[in-house]
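Re: [ENG-882] Designed sequences occasionally contain unexpected residues at chain ends

Forwarding the minimal case from QA. Structure tokens:
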């Protein structure tokens, strides 16, 4: 939808013609008339901003042909970027199973960020404690998210089990890809991963068949090997997880190693 199509849409909506629009908005009649007669290639930004103010639209509505909704970016004070709008368009093209995958990841990440924000105390608030910062030696560790826990057995429900703790990880070049650490529960991945092991996970690496990852299947979290049609338990006495057509399965990252002691766990 081009500029004039949008202008016509709003003039029709609000019962304006070129003459009445000029009087109401303060934009000279000759300017508006020339848009129709000579084109709008030389449209000035101050004029566009005046249209935004008059019709109560966003600037993107006038400047981007792909934006066709006059309420784009302003509904109830809620602003949305063009990139976010593109995500919504892609989401609407997905089938219910794919939308469920996206919902699971979005729920996980939104709750994680919410928990992090809740644990932060702004300076000057009634609950904030002002402390004197003491010099401390530079250490060779960094802190990352710590989760309890992931199943190497019957499954652990993971949504709502978001981290409010951090764990120290050796600050080595190979550990720069580590995004979080999660504790193993169960024995289905023995002898490689045992009950109580803390595994380091990266969300930056591609998963290939044979890799071990963290998978959320129908809301339950597992550590398993990625197979062609199933998630594989490395313990021969444990069952694999068969993936049915309508199962909701999301990979939450690739296991890149075990975190060995000593390490320190701290609350946010």
């Amino acid at each position: 939808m081009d500029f004039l199509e949008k202008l016509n849409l709003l003039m029709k909506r609000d019962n304006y013609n070129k003459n009445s629009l000029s009087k109401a908005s303060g934009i000279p009649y000759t300017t508006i008339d020339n848009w129709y007669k000579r084109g709008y290639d030389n449209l000035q930004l101050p004029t566009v901003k005046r249209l935004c103010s008059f019709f109560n639209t966003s600037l993107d509505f006038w400047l981007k042909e792909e934006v066709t909704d006059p309420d784009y970016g302003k509904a109830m004070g809620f602003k949305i970027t063009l990139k976010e709008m593109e995500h919504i368009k892609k989401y609407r093209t997905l089938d219910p199973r794919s939308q469920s995958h996206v919902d699971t990841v979005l729920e996980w990440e939104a709750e994680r960020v919410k928990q992090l924000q809740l644990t932060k105390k702004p300076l000057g608030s009634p609950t904030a404690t002002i402390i004197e910062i003491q010099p401390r030696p530079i250490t060779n560790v960094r802190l990352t998210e710590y989760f309890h826990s992931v199943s190497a057995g019957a499954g652990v429900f993971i949504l709502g089990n978001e981290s409010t703790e951090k764990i120290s990880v050796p600050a080595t070049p190979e550990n720069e890809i580590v995004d979080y650490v999660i504790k193993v529960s169960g024995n289905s991945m023995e002898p490689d991963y045992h009950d109580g092991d803390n595994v380091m996970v990266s969300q930056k690496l591609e998963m290939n068949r044979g890799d071990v990852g963290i998978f959320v299947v129908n809301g339950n979290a597992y550590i398993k090997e990625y197979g062609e049609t199933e998630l594989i338990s490395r313990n021969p006495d444990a069952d694999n997880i068969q993936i049915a057509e309508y199962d909701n399965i999301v990979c939450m990252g690739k296991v890149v190693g075990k975190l060995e002691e000593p390490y320190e766990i701290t609350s946010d």
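QA comment: On inspection the terminal residues look reasonable. Residues 3-89 form a domain with the 434 Repressor (Amino-terminal Domain) fold (CATH 1.10.260). Proposing we downgrade this to a documentation issue.
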